[in-house]
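User: When convenient, might I ask for sequence and structure tokens for a protein?

AI:
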Amino acid sequence: MVASQTHDRRAGFTLVELAVVVVIIGVLAAFAVPRFLDSVERSKAGEAFNYLATIHSAMERYHVRQGTYADDLDELDVELVAPEYFTVGTVEVPSTEADLETGWELTLTRVGASAGFGEYTVVFNHDGYDGANSTIPDAISVLQTSSS
């Protein structure tokens, strides 16, 4: 009978054991949540890169046919759907270029909550991605490779 009384007392978890489990879950969450938020924002930034890569290809096709770059995205031979998380600027002629025959530039600006990264921009021009004028943080740039 003594053995069954001891067994009944040990049927559940102690408060200390539960507290240890809660602390371990909290520590794991503290490491996982920021990485998850970075991944989510990186996928949203990927939307900008895909959109601008499509524009870049269409601009090059337009340039081959017309001898100049388009000054309006509606002139391109692609059906564009506006990005959900970015505002699209207008096609600009870079200050270092004389006119649309030799160059163009388009900027997308992040709108809305961005997982603590704030407002950032992704810029493409006639050469492709313009890292010098883009303000996208390295932590979420789709051009950065993950080391883990």
About this structure: The mean pLDDT is 85. Residues 15-66 form the longest helix (52 residues).
